[in-house]
Amino acid sequence: MSVVETDSIDAIGLDKEAKRVFLSIIDPLLWDDKNVHLFTLQEKINTYLHFIESGELLKAMPESQDCDIAIELILKHMPSDEAIAFFDKTMQILFDKGIVFVFGPNKESGYAEQQS
Fold first, then answer.
1. Most distant CA atoms of the chain, gap in Å
2. What's the N-to-C CA distance of the chain in angstroms?
3. Cα 2 to Cα 24, 26, 66, distances in angstroms
């Protein structure tokens, strides 16, 4: 799954030691001038927010009770300036709801633009 399947959750993980649930969004898309990518990502984040706020997360993973929640955006491509501005706004909105928002490249390979 990936960001283009806006009505589904890509991956869920639980770090028991840190008591944090990670809801991951896999994003292999290139950034575009018309911000179609950003609109798609916004829909996907809204799906994740509904999953959390509706109680579906607790039904799917009861052991997530009393854990912090993080939405993790795993990007293949370096974000555009517009994307960074969107991430800043998203981070604040989610933080106000008690949800952490993190983004970055694949930890092993980095952004596609940084690979040699």
1. 43
2. 26
3. 9, 5, 27
pLDDT digits (tens, 9 = 90+) for 42-62: 999 999 999 999 999 999 999
**pTM (predicted TM-score):** 0.90
Q: Which residues of 88-101 are buried (b: 16+ CB within 10 A; e: fewer)?
A: eebbeebeeeebeb
Closest residue by Cα to residue 22 from 91, 78, 100:
100
Cα–Cα distance for residue pair 73/87, rounded to 1 Å: 10
What residue segments make up the domains of the chain, in order of their start? Answer: 11-114
What is the spatial distance between Cα 3 and Cα 26, in angstroms, rounded to a whole number? Answer: 6
- Cβ within 8 Å of residue 36, ≥6 positions away: none
Burial class (CB in 10 A: 0-12, 13-18, 19+), 75: buried
Strand partners, 59: none
